[in-house]
Amino acid sequence: MTLDTGLRADPPYAALVAMSGYLPESDDLSTVLDAAKGQPLLIIHGVADDVLAIGIGRRAKQVLEAAGLALDYREFPMAHEVSGESLEAVAAFLRQQLLFA
User: Fold this and answer.
1) From the CB of residue 84, how many other CB atoms can be counted at a distance below 10 Å?
2) What percent of the chain has a predicted confidence (pLDDT) above 70?
3) 3-state helix, strand, coil in the chain (%, to 5)
4) d(CA 83, CA 32)
5) Where do the Phospholipase/carboxylesterase/thioesterase domain residues begin and end (predicted)?
6) Are 3 and 21 within 8 A, CB to CB?
């Protein structure tokens, strides 16, 4: 949901965090991504995710970077869950983004 609705937000959010997310590749995706180039974005994905396989996260990273978005992409040794380590990464990202917002 974050990658679909968050990247379309106008005005943009201060920062977006997608945890084990999916990037729908709709017909208007290139237009959406072009407008979202300045959007701070963190993607967290578990390498053992049995709900949304790691390839889905890696595909989102590939598509977003190819479109020119600067994102922070992190993989963690976890399933479809929130680990302490991944939560620490989210907190650090948000602190960094909100200090400069």
Assistant:
1) 9
2) 98
3) 45, 15, 40
4) 31
5) 1-96
6) yes
- pLDDT higher than threshold 60 for residue 25: yes
Q: In this structure, which amino acid lies at residue 20?
A: S
CA dihedral 80, 82, 87, 93 (to 10 degrees): 30
CA-only gyration radius of the chain, Å: 13
- Residue 28 confidence class, pLDDT cut points 50, 70, 90: very high
Domains of the chain plus CATH, in order, are 1-98 (3.40.50.1820)
Look up the pTM and report it.
0.93
Name, in order, each residue with C-beta under 8 angstroms of 49's C-beta and a sequence gap of 6 or more.
Answer: 20, 57, 78, 79, 80
